[in-house]
Amino acid sequence: MGQSLLRLFIFGILSTFCLQAQAEITSLSSAINKSGRQRMLSQRILKTYSMIGIDVNAMTAQKQLGDAVKLFDQQLAELIAYAPNKSIKKGLDKVTRLWAPYKATVNQTVDKTKALELLDASGELLSACHKVVLLLTDLSPTNAGHLVNISGRQRMLSQRMSMLYMYKSWGFDNSLIRSQMSQDKNEFKGALAELTEANENTDTLQKQLRKAKSEWKLFKHGLDGIEKNPIPFIVNLAGDKLLKRMNDVTALYTNLSSK
Predict the structure, then answer these.
(1) pLDDT per residue over 120-176, tens digit each?
(2) Which residues in 83-117 are b (16+ Cβ under 10 Å) and which e?
(3) Which residue in 10, 65, 131, 218 is a FRET match for 237, CA 20 to 30 A apart?
């Protein structure tokens, strides 16, 4: 194991990403942030489900799955209570309809025969959540709302790429999964470049984004190595470290937008 991967392994043992709702929604920027986190949770839930399926840190994955489901429920209720117009309420109604059967299935015993069905369901739920984010972002009077959306989407991409990696490790490998993985890598790289060049960036944000760039390189290295040397445990740690970094970046943009 290389020194970078070893440091990542130690980091993963000492620290885990903690999912917290933080506080009730009090501003448009916090609504964009939380609705964006729902996108991430839709993919994190399936990632942890697949980790249980391939027996990778299964006990921790089971807890993370439960925490993610609980947080999705909590934030959905908060977003429904906050919804500022009919279009957003309608969007959240669709999220609610898609969420109910998805939640019911992932709360059951992990079943590989349901994996592809869940993959489709997660995509539909993600799409519905994303629409809500866009509707909220359209209400933002400044570019900071757009940055909250973009940085928040990076959280989702970290978890979807991890999930697709787990699926390939689970024995699922088709053109759609490979195409989505390639698309996600390109999108993450492009969005990171956009964020780095944002005029709104403070010194703190630039420092965080430089760290994110380094962590992305390490994560991508793990993703690219699946054919030669599959290491799902390390890839999961790298993805979660990147998730935490982008969550911190999103919080910084949220604070900028609130001001």
Answers:
(1) 999 999 999 999 999 999 999 989 999 999 999 999 999 999 999 999 999 998 999
(2) beeeebeebbebbeebbeebeeebeeebeeebbee
(3) 131
